[in-house]
């Protein structure tokens, strides 16, 4: 039941070998809230991936063998897993969804995540979809003075 005006313009990202997005949150510090208010949720969809690496890692959520091993088709499960955050494989067509804020409306620390680099000669293309607390108001492309 989400109204389209609560969704930011979609963002496509492309990663090649050596490119990654360092650990970050998708929510904003309260003093940095922009038009549309806080980012409520994130969908990250893998559009294309021809790599064995390039996972999305949630740094503050540790891999738990007893809980996560049954999801090794979508999670990276290797000998390093217990020492690293939860890592989602770049499987084309799959999406990861998470809430950026908690029930009190504060940024959720467990959402600290990073876009890891694809393997050599690999390519990963993803789609970010962010929902906001309020209707978003973004510059119109046909109005050059709004940029």
TrEMBL record:
Name of the protein described by the UniProt record: Prolyl 4-hydroxylase alpha subunit Fe(2+) 2OG dioxygenase domain-containing protein
PANTHER family xrefs: PROLYL 4-HYDROXYLASE ALPHA SUBUNIT (PTHR10869), TRANSMEMBRANE PROLYL 4-HYDROXYLASE (PTHR10869:SF246)
Keyword Phosphoprotein among UniProt keywords: no
InterPro entries, per the entry: P4HA-like, Pro_4_hyd_alph_FE2OG_OXY
Top-level taxon of origin: Eukaryota
Keywords for the protein's UniProt record, in alphabetical order: Iron, Metal-binding, Vitamin C
Any one Gene Ontology cellular component term annotated for this protein: endoplasmic reticulum
Keyword Magnesium: no
């Amino acid at each position: 039941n989400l109204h389209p005006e609560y969704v930011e313009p979609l963002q496509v990202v492309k990663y090649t070998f050596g490119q990654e997005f360092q650990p970050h949150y998708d929510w904003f510090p309260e003093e940095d809230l922009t038009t549309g208010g806080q980012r409520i949720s994130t969908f990250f969809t893998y559009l294309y991936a021809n790599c064995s690496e390039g996972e999305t890692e949630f740094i503050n959520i540790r891999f738990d063998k007893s809980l996560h091993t049954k999801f090794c088709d979508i999670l990276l499960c290797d000998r390093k897993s217990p020492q690293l955050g939860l890592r989602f494989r770049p499987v084309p067509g799959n999406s990861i969804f998470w809430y950026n804020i908690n029930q009190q409306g504060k940024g959720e620390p467990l959402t600290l995540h990073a876009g890891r680099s694809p393997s050599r000669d690999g390519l990963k293309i993803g789609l970010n979809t962010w929902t906001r607390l309020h209707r978003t108001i973004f510059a119109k492309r046909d109005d050059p003075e709004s940029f």
